[in-house]
Amino acid sequence: LAPGLWERPSNVRALAQLLRAYVRNADATQFQTTVKVDGLLGVFQKLIATRSNDHEGFNLIQCMMECCPNHELEPFMKQIFLLLFQRLSSSKTTKYVKGILVFFCFYILKYGANNFIEIVDSIQPMMFAMIVDRLFIPDAQKISGKIERKIAIAGLAKLLSESKHLKENMYLQYWNVLTKVLINLLELPVDETINPEEDFIVDVENM
């Protein structure tokens, strides 16, 4: 899709929905020809950078994770996380935090709990601890929407039940912490408070 089409805000939602439809209906060979992963990621990067459209970026990348062949998307995954953390560091909003938490849980469901911890820690040592302390603990209860909360609950359950890293000394303390987060999601209503913006610093320049 021509870049100029995305310049009009009124076009963005319809174009994003159209792209997701292409992705869902493409067969494996089309991801090497007409539905190029790198082109889709360029759109994702543009969407995720803006407060008004970041939710469309999350919708697109989760659609790609669901539908793209793993060998096509896997080489780009670390860069995807870097883009998400760059936006988190530069412009953290409650809406964005809810979106990235659901993305994390969707990733865990798709690629596994150990893979998730390993990829975030490859970006910055002990990044997983920062994610739990500064995102999951204060903000998981803010996740709203039936589908989004189901993804969060299922992802956290998989993280707790499958991750070898939560059984090791470095992250052993977080098993009980994340269990409490999961129980709260199951038992308590949505927290509708809006947090003031806070810093979430990732040293992306030295990655």
TrEMBL record:
Protein name: Exportin-2
GO cellular component: cytosol; nuclear envelope
Gene Ontology terms, MF aspect: nuclear export signal receptor activity; small GTPase binding
InterPro entries recorded: ARM-like, ARM-type_fold, XPO2_C
Record-level GO BP terms: protein export from nucleus; protein import into nucleus
Gene3D superfamilies linked to this entry: Leucine-rich Repeat Variant
Domain Exportin-2 C-terminal: 1-205
Organism the protein comes from: Triatoma infestans
